[in-house]
Amino acid sequence: MGGAGILLLLLAGVGMGEAWRPPKGKCPLGCSCSKDSALCEGSPDLPESFAPTLLSLSLVRTGVTQLKAGSFLRVPSLHLLSLANNHLETLPRFLFRGLETLTHVDLRGNPFQCDCRVLWLLQWIPTVNASVGTGACASPTALAHMQLHHLDPKTFKCRAIELSWFQTVGESALGVEAFSYQGEPHVVLAQPFAGRCLILTWDYSLQRFRQEEELSAPSVVSCKPLVLGPRLFVLAARLWGGSQLWARPGPDLRLAPLQALAPRRLLRPNDAELLWLDGQPCFVVADASKAGSTTLLCRDGPGFYPRQSLHAWHRDTDAEALELDGRPHLLLASASQRPVLFHWFGGRFERRTDIPEAEDVYATRHFQASGDVFLCLTRYIGDSMVMRWDGSMFRLLQQLPSRGAHVFQPLLIARDQLAILGSDFAFSQVFRLEPDRGLLEPLQELGPPALVAPRAFAHITMAGRRFLFAACFKGPTQIYQHHELDLSA
Asked: What are the residues facing 234 on neighbouring strands?
């Protein structure tokens, strides 16, 4: 009998002169059994016929290369368990579940692969009252010969995400917005060729998205929703024919035109955003016409009326509302100069600064992470950029190749801060912010089906499931489902 087996038998209170073999069939072939202990040495297979009252078990220098999940469920009384000096590269998750009386586990001498499959073991060791002889890693090379109990579970990246195709919405779209109305998530698509703002909701019987309502909006570029209690407003910014505000007074009514918005000011809208100023809802509409100006429209009585004209003659392509230093700010991107940052002061927006080293920026979007404010800047030619606010201006943090991009949009989905870089010439790329480095790292490409000229992204959570909408200018809108994958399983 090997030394390890003798030690286990002694610890279990069985003397060498007390050897006892249970009835025929209870002690597996290749094992030596006593009253409540078993030693299996050199056996090519894992025995399965141990007595349920077994207290100590030693499987030493066997030919076993892997164990099945639940291998020890039939011996719940084990105190001592040795799997030393075998060929085990990994152990099935929760192998020791149900063994509440364990006092010692020996895993030494196995060539463990210290990847995500060992994470559950690292997390389990500190939670048990048993002493554990863990042994060392055989791979990867960077961890070779390191003792398992010296590994930090926090350094293992064992959670992955995947965006897989779910549904197609037939018509092309320039914009997509998610909103909640009467406790139910909705999505509205700006579909210029179909000439409408299309509102989608979830069909619980078919388990897919369906049309709820549409409003007529030829040449629409943006459909911006606003919910005020039971009332729903939708701003339809249109290239021709004038922009309109639609309203639904209550949940049982349909949307109807409420107001023509600033017909002499909104000449060629390119983007619209919602923001709150001094407790009141406002819209800002970026105007790309040569002689136009971006217009701030705020609520006054039943409608929305011009409050301020901004950035005249600069052909603005995008507006982004954000908060910096506890105050409302507005960032305008244009075809003629670097993005300009305005701050709300004295009841109006005043120019604060511009963004250095940011020429030819088509659009901007911001996100927050770890107390910092970041900015994603889209460039059709050249590299798109990620910047971080330093308290006085945005400074360059990262550049990403982006030929043919019209959208670089950050989205917080579950626990993941993502950013999607759409392209007219290649697959759209999904990036994830790595907290340790504070940089965006590539995650996956979107497709198939490939996105054709993507222009906007939005996400929505419905019935416990998370979805990503991708509005495409030259193809149908695609919907992807967000999945979380546990690589340690």
From this structure: 225, 246
